[in-house]
Specification:
The chain has 3 helices and 3 strands, in the order E-E-E-H-H-H. With about 80 residues, it is an alpha+beta fold. It has a single domain, classed as 2-Layer Sandwich (Enolase-like, domain 1), CATH 3.30.390.
Length: about 80
């Protein structure tokens, strides 16, 4: 299932997930720190949605109260609510 999310409070602008059941098949990130986000996108492939949420939720970037990983967790929580 394709799921799109617009992050808030971070440099990245758009996330596109491909999720099969509870497993992430791909994540494409537009904007942000491309090297770091390309690495994160590769790391999450094959992971369970709940595992990514647990790992990324609450990570802060420069005292913003959120970060790109935290926004990924928030996106995945929204995905779960949409099911």
């Amino acid at each position: 299932m394709k799921f799109e999310y617009v992050p808030k409070g971070v440099c990245s602008r758009h996330y596109t997930f491909d999720i099969d059941g509870d497993t992430i098949r791909s994540l494409v990130v537009e904007g942000g720190c491309m090297g770091n986000l390309a690495g994160i996108s590769r790391i999450v492939v094959g992971m369970k949605v709940d595992d990514v949420i647990r790992a990324f939720e609450g990570i802060d970037c420069n005292f913003k109260g959120t970060s790109c990983p935290d926004q990924i967790a928030r996106a995945l929580k929204e995905y779960k609510l949409s099911l």
